[in-house]
Design brief:
The complex is a heterodimer of chains A (111) and B (111). With 111 residues, chain A is mostly beta strands. Chain A is built from no helices and eleven strands. In chain A, strands 2, 4, 5, 9, 10 and 11 form a six-stranded mixed beta sheet that branches. Chain A has a five-stranded antiparallel beta sheet with strand order 1-3-8-7-6, with no helix packed on it. In chain B, the strands form two sheets. In chain B, strands 2, 4, 5, 6, 9, 10 and 11 form a seven-stranded mixed beta sheet that branches. In chain B, strands 1-3-8-7 form a four-stranded antiparallel beta sheet, with no helix packed on it. The termini of chain B are far apart. Classes of the chains: A mainly beta (111), B mainly beta (111). The interface between A and B is medium-sized, with 24 and 27 residues.
């Protein structure tokens, strides 16, 4: 079973709209979460981390973590065409440095 | 910004041949990782390392070996390459609870 599950698989939003991406884990050993973004032909790049319950805001990006349900979300407001990319949720196991990624959400922002 | 360099960028190998993928980081990070990326599977962890001389198995280690001869270098070795190992391979480095920095990837085709 995939340790980190993401939804939806793909998402299309209009320019200026809000994009919402979701991530869940069934493993309570995962306590540290990140969001990464990958543009075509490049390696993934970290967007932001979230380790505590609640919201964390960085510019147009807001991450939310609910540790009780192991649910993480990423919200992108005022989406731009340059935000079009593959977005990954990643989680680190509590006991070691293994970092697992979900299958990704393909975001398309249409002008 | 932290740098991770992978070589080669592209590789064509024959079935049963030996393939070595190299990764170098100048970030002085203790942790290094090898992932493969296939359509529909996101990033899957093959091997990782805590530091020079250490290698640990990830989620899909079968058919792969890893070597960490120094802080800077981490290699992925396919002793007997198979067509199922055709993929894009990413190396990453990072500190504990810090973001990962990825290389540009190696596209491997096994014929």
């Amino acid at each position: 079973q995939q340790k980190v599950q993401q939804s939806p698989e793909s998402l299309s939003v209009p320019e200026g709209g809000m994009a919402s991406l979701n991530c869940t884990s069934s493993d309570r050993n995962f306590q540290y979460f990140w969001w990464y973004r990958q543009h075509s032909g490049e390696g993934p790049k970290a967007l932001m981390s979230i380790f505590s319950d609640g919201d964390k805001k960085e510019g147009r990006f807001t991450a939310h973590l609910n540790k009780a349900s192991l649910h993480v979300s990423l919200h992108i407001r005022d989406s731009q065409p340059s935000d079009s990319a593959l977005y990954f949720c990643a989680a680190r196991e509590e006991s070691n440095n293994r970092i697992f990624f979900g299958d990704g959400t393909q975001l398309v922002v249409k002008p | 910004e932290a740098a991770v360099t992978q070589s080669p960028r592209n590789k064509v190998a024959v079935t049963g041949g030996k393939v070595t993928l190299s990764c170098n980081q100048t970030n002085n990070h203790n942790n290094m990782y090898w992932y493969r990326q296939d359509t529909g599977h996101g990033l899957r962890l093959i091997h990782y390392s805590y530091g020079a001389g250490s290698t640990e198995k990830g989620d899909i280690p079968d058919g792969y070996k890893a070597s960490r001869p120094s802080q800077e270098n981490f290699s992925l070795i396919l002793e007997l390459a198979t067509p199922s190992q055709t993929s894009v391979y990413f190396c990453a480095s990072g500190g504990t609870n810090e973001r990962l920095f990825f290389g540009h990837g190696t596209k491997l085709s096994v014929l």
